[in-house]
Structures are given as structure tokens and as C-alpha cells.
Amino acid sequence: MPEENRPILVIGHINPDTDSICSAICYARLKETITGKKHEARRAGQINEETRFVLSKFGVKEPEYQDNVRMQVKDVEYRETEGVSRNISLKRAWEIMKEKNVVTLPITKQRRLEGLITVKDIATSYMDVYDSRILSTAHTKYKNIVETLDATMLVGNPEEYFIDGKVLIAAANPEIMENYIEDNDLVILGNRYESQLSAIEMNAGCIVVCEGAVVATSIKKLAEENGCNIICTPHDTYTVARLINQSMPISYFMTREDLVTFCTDDYIDDIRDIMAKMRHRDFPVLDKKGTYMGMMSRRNLLGTERKKVILVDHNEKSQAVDGIEDAEIMEIIDHHRLGTIETISPVYFRNQPLGCTATIVYQMYTENNVKIDKQTASLLCAAIISDTLMYRSPTCTEFDKLAAKELSKIADLDVESFAAEMFKAGSNLSKKSEEEIFYQDFKKFSSGDISFGVGQITSMNEEELSVIKGRMLPYIKNMITVHNIDMIYFMLTDIQNESTELLFAGNHAQELVANAFAVQFPEGDDIASANLKGVVSRKKQLIPALMKVMQQ
Predict the structure, then answer these.
(1) Is residue 52 classed as helix, strand or coil in its secondary structure?
(2) What is the pTM for the complete model shown?
(3) CATH code 3.40.1390.20 for 90-252
(4) Would you identify the CATH topology of the domain 434-551?
(5) Alpha helix segments (H runs only) across 128-216
(6) Bridge partner residues of 117 (DSSP)
(7) pLDDT tens across 239-276, in order?
(8) Which is it for strands 442-447 and 450-459: parallel, antiparallel or unpaired?
(9) Using CA of residue 379, residue 381, residue 384, residue 388, what is the dihedral sign?
């Protein structure tokens, strides 16, 4: 895809919540309105039930999944060289190469790649072929011979093939010709009636009459009776002899085995290594279904620009879409602590201590005097309600509440009833697997040499959370090995009672909780959970408290 047509991707974190998805959608709309350039919201992971409910309720399509932002073949402006038929002549292939200024032609049938023909292959056909039977061996169509010689077929069917016999020039007397013309030969000759007659009587398969000579009616009639084709060309004998091998079909010389092809989904970094080892000038590009798409050369990779990305609701590399280090980060819009994302050049970075990224996006709409439509207002309002736990989270500010109030007016939304409906849709956890629950909102962090992960689910159903606790305790222990981290914490947050049952696993995990939240555990007991009253926010309450103890 040409760089100017490639959209700028607006992406949230790899375990997207409602704020991450809705903010990406609404910020992409804002940027497209302001700049006129194409921006597309994408998701870096599976959306949860709450977010799915929000999108469905307001009639918004789920963003396309973006598993990584590494450059792929489909992001490069490769040549869309049209495929040719295997039956065209070498001469026609050469003409197409000159017209398109290419050295390789793809040979296709119904957009499926059959082989390749190169300038080297054509040169080989001219320089290394001495076999006078090569034209018939290659099963050359008479139509190709006619076109190559700028000729007219006076007798015979141009769609038939020359499949038996040699090519020869009848330069001798008719008496001598009888000694070397065999059945089915193709004979190149002049305007001598006797030579034409002799060739037909010797069962030649075809005669090529040169210099536009008039062929007598009696010769044409005799040729028809004997099954001999007649081709008349304006060229002289020397020119015909020089050109006729160019009528052979490219199928005879094309490469059809061990073709090196690339898929549109292949990564540029991977194919660079392959290109470096191969001496080919051009490589065919196929899509995932094997359909031929075009041709790529090393030159196509020169100056290729990286994918342009805007990150929302995160600035930690561990939470970013795979391959972020290979992308060009244009902006970061976030409300979390400063993380580990690095950029090559300065970028627009807006980070505010608010309860929700959607509040920042709302501010940017108003700052740029862009009208917020009802659907956009609904998405932003839902994100604020979700991320602030209906204003119960300590991260919630007056700005968040004011933004939600104004947005609810535009959206014509009853906040109380909508919040209850949304949280109920998102807290239907009993039917989900441990894996689905764990990855609903899981993030990795680090402090010095310590790496840890924190997951969180929220529910308005205390009984449901109690059942999930028993299922998740053994599961999170295994996740330490899977993610190769020191500790895992998992928050079961009760929105109604504004509390969290914190599950944990890993060396010193219990000790950290005890010191961070002044929780007393019985000596010698390997208890793996703690009830934290008033703790509902991972960002503002749990993470800072744990990191403070880690740093000490």
C-alpha cells in the first residue's frame, strides 16, 4: 500500500478495556476531522464483555484486530505488474518487458502464479539454442509465428500448433531440396513456384513465403489438399530465420519450480535476509490465498516508512502492541504513570492525572472546537463511567465527572441506569474460563529488577467474586512461569462495596502486601489473598503502594 494511503493507527493496550477501545475510536475520529488524514482505531487484544456491550448498544463496529505493527509486504509499494499467459511468444514477452521497464515477468493463469520468465531466459533462448527442432519441441502455436513475423496465414488455422518437424531454409534447387525436407518440416523460402511446390509435395507441415511474395492459387489449393500451412511475411529470408525462434512460447523457457515468493503478510525484516541470499532481481508477491498480487525488488524496500501509530491509554512497552519498537509513534494520549515507551524523535505526549483517557479526548474535542455527535458522546461517557467505576475510584476527578455530565446530555443518556446495565453485562464472569477472566485486564510492570503483573476484574456481584476466587488462586500461580515474572497480583474488585479481594502468588508477594497495606497474616500460614477495604484502583492505589515498598 502506498505510504500516502496508509492510515495512522490509533491503538490502546494489549488487554483493552472500555476506555482503551472507546478512546481509540473517538480520538481517531477527532484526528481525521482536524488533519484530513486517514486515522483508524485498532485493538491490540480481545475486547471484554463490557466493551462489547457498549459498542453493540451504540451501534459501533468493533475495531479491527492489530496483532503487531511491524512492517509487512502489504505496507510496501511493490509493483503491480500484470501476469502474462504462458502461451505468449518470447518476442511479445520482450516487448512487454521494455514497455514496463522490468526484467522479470510473472506467468499466471486466473491470477495463480505458474512461473517466471526473465531477460536472462530470453537471452539463453537466442544464444544457447542450436536445435533446429526446438520450435516444434516447444509446441509453438502458429499464431505466435504469424505475429512474430508480422505475417498473414493464407492456409491453415493459426490456433493450431507446430509440434513435429524441423525448421529449415530452402535455398537450394528443388531437386536438391528433396534430399533434406522431411515430413512436417517448416520450410522458409522465397517466391519461386517450383520450390513452394516441391516443399508441399515433400509433405512439409508449413511453408513460410518471404518478402510478401504472391502465392499462386494452385499452390494454396495444393497446400490445403496436403494439409500444409502457408504463412506469408513481408520480411526477407535472413530476417525470418533470425526472428522465428522468438515465436516460441515462454512456457518452454520459464522457471516453474522452487520459486521464491513472498506473502503480503510476511514481515519486511524477514524477507530482507532472504533477498540478500538470492540473486534474483524480482520476487512475486502472493496474498494469503495464493493469489498473485505483484512483483517486489530490493529497490521497493529502500526508503520504506514505518507504520505510524498513536498510543492511547498506555505508555508502557509491556502493554503495547507487538513490534512497537519498529513503528513510528506519532502521539501518546494517556492518564497513567510514565512508563517505558521510547521514541526516536520527539512526539506529542499528553499525560494528565485524570480518571480516564476519554476525559482527555473530550477536552481535546472542546479545545479544537470540534462538535461531538451523539454516538461519540455515548462512547466517551461510557468509558469514563467504566474507568472511574461510576465515580467511585480514587482516580476520579471533578474533571471526569464534569465531562461525563456534559457527554451524557449530548448522548441523552441516563447515567445511573446505563452504568448498572453496563457493569452487569461486564460482570457475567461465571461462564468464562480462568484464562478469559485472567486476560480480561492484565498488565505487566517492573520496578528495578523486580517484574510483576497485575490483573483486575470488577463486578457488582459479591457472590460471583467469591466463586471466582476459588478458581483463580491456583491459576495465577501457573501464570508466573508462563509470563516469566516474579509475582502476580489479581484484583477482584467489588464495585458495590468499594473493596478488593487481592489474590497473589510469587516469592515475597505476601510480604509486599503486608507492608504496603498494613495487613497482618498469621505467622507460618501461606495465605494467598487479602481483603482491602476502600481499594478499587489499580493505577492509583495498588501499584503505587506496591512500588513504594519494592523501592524501599
Answers:
(1) helix
(2) 0.67
(3) yes
(4) Diaminopimelate Epimerase; Chain A, domain 1 (3.10.310)
(5) 134-137, 142-148, 174-177, 193-201
(6) 105
(7) 999 999 999 999 999 998 889 999 999 998 888 888 88
(8) antiparallel
(9) negative
The Cα–Cα gap between 428 and 440 comes to 12
CA atoms within 13 A on the CB side of 435: 2
Cα 304 to the center of its chain, rounded Å: 15
Residues 277, 280, 285, 290: is their CA dihedral positive or negative? negative
**Could you tell me the maximum CA-CA distance found in the chain, to the nearest angstrom?**
120
23 phi/psi in degrees, rounded to 5 = -65, -40
209, 233 in Cβ contact below 8 A?
A: yes
* Domain range list for the chain: 3-71+306-414, 90-252, 434-551
3-state helix, strand, coil in the chain (%, to 5): 40, 20, 40
d(CA 457, CA 308): 32
User: For 527-551, what is each residue's pLDDT tens digit?
Assistant: 789 999 999 999 889 999 999 999 8
User: Residues in the chain, how many?
Assistant: 552
φ, ψ at 230 (rounded to 5°): -125, 125
Q: DSSP labels for 73-123?
A: GGGS--B-PPPB-TTSBHHHHHHHHHHHT-SEEEEEETTEEEEEEEHHHHH
CATH 3.40.50.2300 fits 3-71+306-414, yes or no: no
